[in-house]
Amino acid sequence: MTPDQFIFLLCAALIIASAIMVVTSKNLVHSALWLVATLFGVAILYALLQAAFLALVQVVVYIGAIAILFIFAVMLTRRELRDKGPQLNQNWGLSAVMAVFTFGGLFYILSSWSGFSAKAVEIPVGTDPLRMLGYALVSPDAYVLPFEVASILLLAALVGAVYIATASKK
């Protein structure tokens, strides 16, 4: 087993364990912190795939902005951080069975996929992938619309969090 494979397995275990803790934790702030751990594990996977820009974006945007915004929204809107009601839905058994079937179906579909053994195409020498990404993000022919929609979505989430925080104090 190579060191990269060992790190991948360790990160996969971290991501799975922290994702389970996100949905099973009784405290919302703890769930948000487990979400940060999950997103950090994904950033490590991006670094293993030699996608340094995506790893940096994962840390800065998702961990540094969205997760922290979520933590602040929870802290501003909740008077008491521990919920008193039941933590499990009555249909949790059906949900667990459906999750197992979904995972089994995905495993079956991906077991015959040839992409696992394919090698990634190397970037030609002399090209700047960050410059190409920058042009793609602002080019009308590429990703300018999804890029702007994502910025509007983040702005709406921020305005909504401020509104909920001010409305709950009245």
List the SSEs and their pairings:
Elements: H1 3-24, H2 28-48, H3 52-77, H4 92-111, H5 129-138, H6 144-168
Helix pairs in contact: 1-2, 2-3, 3-6
Structure notes:
- This protein has 170 residues and is mainly α.
- The protein has 2 domains: 82 residues, Up-down Bundle (Four Helix Bundle (Hemerythrin (Met), subunit A)); 43 residues.
- Helices cover 73% and strands 0% of the residues.
- The protein contains 6 helices and no strands.
- Helix 1 packs antiparallel against helix 2, helix 2 runs antiparallel to helix 3 and helix 3 packs parallel to helix 6.
- The longest helix has 26 residues.
- It is globular.
- It starts with a helix and ends with a helix.
- The model has no long low-confidence stretch (mean pLDDT 82).
Structural class: mainly alpha
CATH topology name of the largest domain:
Four Helix Bundle (Hemerythrin (Met), subunit A)
Largest sheet features = none
SS summary, helix count: 6
Name the average pLDDT.
82
Structural shape:
globular
CATH class of the largest domain: Mainly Alpha
- CATH architecture call of the largest domain: Up-down Bundle
Unreliable residue stretches:
none
Q: What's the helix-strand series?
A: HHHHHH
How many structural domains does the protein architecture include? 2
Question: What percent strand?
Answer: under 5%
Q: Could you estimate the helical fraction of the residues in percent?
A: over 70%
- The fourth-level CATH homologous superfamily of the largest domain is NADH-ubiquinone/plastoquinone oxidoreductase chain 6, subunit NuoJ
Radius of gyration: 20 Å
Note the gap between the termini. 59 Å
Number of strand elements: 0
